[in-house]
Amino acid sequence: MAPAGERSAGGGKRGLKRRAAAEEPREPAAGGDGAAEGGVRPGGAAAFPPGFSVSEIKNKQRRHLMFTRWKQQRRKEKLAAKKKLKKEREALGDKAPPKPVPKTIDNQRVYDETTVDPTDEEVAYDEATDEFASYFNRQTSPKILITTSDRPHGRTVRLCEQLSTVIPDSHVYYRRGLALKKIIPQCIARDFTDLIVINEDRKTPNGLILSHLPNGPTAHFKMSSVRLRKEIKRRGKDPTEHVPEIILNNFTTRLGHSIGRMFASLFPHNPQFIGRQVATFHNQRDYIFFRFHRYIFKSEKKVGIQELGPRFTLKLRSLQKGTFDSKYGEYEWVHKPREMDTSRRKFHL
C-alpha cells in the first residue's frame, strides 16, 4: 500500500498510470480511421464517434482540452471552406451566383399590418392633423424644458446638462418637490413645446418621459446603457452651438411613425451643416439607440465620424394621449410583455 501522502498527492500509483494512459492518443482501430475510437487525430483535432458529447468526459481538464481542440478544428474547416468558395467565385467571374443573404431576426421580421406606406392618403391626412402638424408646417419652433425626478443625484444632473447641449433651445430645471402636473401648466404658459423628464433609481438614470405640449401625446421610455461624455473612449471635443442634423432610422409602423415625429419635433428645421454634428435615433428590434456624432472629413472621398456623447438606449413602455396624467390618462399603447412578446421576430416600432 502506498503512503498516505502519495495517495493524496496523485491518487496513488494506479491513479498516475491511469492519468498517463488518458493523456496518450489512442491508436486507430484496424481498418478504421480512429474516429470510432474517440481518440485524437495526428493533426491534433478531436474526433468523436457519432452521438458522442464532450460533456460526457468526466475529467474537467481533459474535457476542456478536447473541447478547445474541437473548436480549433471547426474554425479551420470553416476557413478552408470559405477560401475554397472564394476561389470558385473568382474563377467563375461574372457567372458566379449571387451571395446568399444571411438570415437574421431583422430580415425575418413578422409583417405588421400597421406598416406605414408614404403614399397612403390616410397617413398623409393623419400627419396633417396630428399634434405635430404645427411644427412640421413651420408654424412653431421647438423650445424644450429638461427636468429630473425629485432631488436628483450627480449622474442624472450631468446627463441633463449634456442633453441640453445636444438639443438647441433647451433649458434645464431641477425639481425640488414640485409635482409634474404643476410643472406642465407653467411650461405651457412660457411657450415650451416639449417637456423631458429624466427619472432615476439608485442614483442611476433609468427612465425618460417625453411630453409634447400643449396637447400631448406623452411617451414613457425605459432608459438603459447610459454613458456620459467622460465614459466614452476616443470621444471628440465638446459639441459646438451649431444646430445638428437629425437621423431617424427604422420607424416603420404607425406607432413607430408617431414616436419618430416626437423625436423630430425636438430639433429645429434648419440644421447648420457647418457644425458637422448629427443626432441619431436608431430603432432596432424596438430598442432605440441614441448617438451624437461629428463628421470628420479625412479627404475628398473619405469621411469618418467621431462620437461626442452622451449615449443611451430607450425602450418604449407606453404612449398616452394628452399631457402626463398617470391616474386618469387615456393610453394609446401599453407594452404588455406576456401578451406582446410571444415571438422574437415580432416588433412594434
TrEMBL record:
GO terms for cellular component: nucleolus; preribosome, large subunit precursor. GO terms for molecular function: rRNA primary transcript binding. Residues 1-61, 79-105 are annotated as: Disordered. Residues 31-42 have a biased composition (Gly residues). SMART domains: Brix. The keyword RNA-binding applies. Residues 142-325 form the Brix domain. It comes from the Eukaryota. Pfam families: Brix. Keywords: Ribosome biogenesis, RNA-binding, rRNA processing, rRNA-binding. Residues 87-97 have a biased composition (Basic and acidic residues). InterPro entries: Brix, IMP4/RPF1. Its main location: nucleus. SUPFAM superfamilies: Class II aaRS ABD-related. PROSITE patterns: BRIX. It is found in: Nucleus, Nucleolus. May be required for ribosome biogenesis. This is Ribosome production factor 1. It comes from Cricetulus griseus.
